[in-house]
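Design review, sub-item: ligand-bound model
Attendees: FS, YL, KQ
YL presented the inputs for the magnesium ion complex:
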Amino acid sequence: MKTAASAPRVVLLDIEGTTAPISFVHDVLFPYARTHMARVLEERKDDPAVQAALAETEKLAPGVPPLEQLERWMNEDAKVAPLKALQGLVWAEGYKRGALVARLYPDVVPMLESWYRAGIELAVYSSGSEPAQKLIYGHTAQGDVTPLFTRFFDLRVGGKKEAASYVSLLQEAGWKASDVLFLSDVTAELDAAAQAGLRVCQIVRHEDGTVAGTEYPVAGNLIEAASLFGLPGIGQA
Ligand SMILES: CSCCC(=O)C(=O)COP(=O)(O)O
Ligand SMILES: [Mg+2]
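KQ shared the predicted structure:
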């Protein structure tokens, strides 16, 4: 007899296109980083974090002036660790002076609060750096919701389209693959996570124009994902 799968114990969430609109990342965050990058790098040239990211940029693109390389990566939307680290530093300044306020989809905070109250572990896996992830969740319309999350994984565990990254993060967190539900809008990320044994669901946000794949369960928002995977709904915990 086949038994019904139990509800996931851990929900691992992508950000762009899953919890935050793509337009917030591409039309607000990325242009802010592009506008202020050169100035922030100049002002913080003695900061060891800036120096480390610039050294890594030079290592990855020898012979290219680092600022030029960073601009190339920004044009390509490259998911590269030193760019992501520096974008995070630029955004930190923007959030601090009130020029940036995070925009999340309206279902996100109420749903995460309900899962948190039900004892479900919540974690982030985004190409944005860990500090950038904490900034987004630290500056929502509902205030600082970072305490809802136990872990913030970024490119240090590897790229999101590689199965090995999911194996690494499972190891680091001590989670069993089948206990974890990964939510993302990008099917290549779901492929990689599924290959590592995680349960997966594609979040297909109408506003983002995400195209639904055919291989995995599809949900229009976190409320639908909850219902598909036996997780509590808003206000049910
Ligand atoms: C941490 S918010 C900025 C997100 C970002 O820089 C990015 O490249 C989007 O990555 P994601 O993995 O969340 O799709
Ligand atoms: Mg995404």
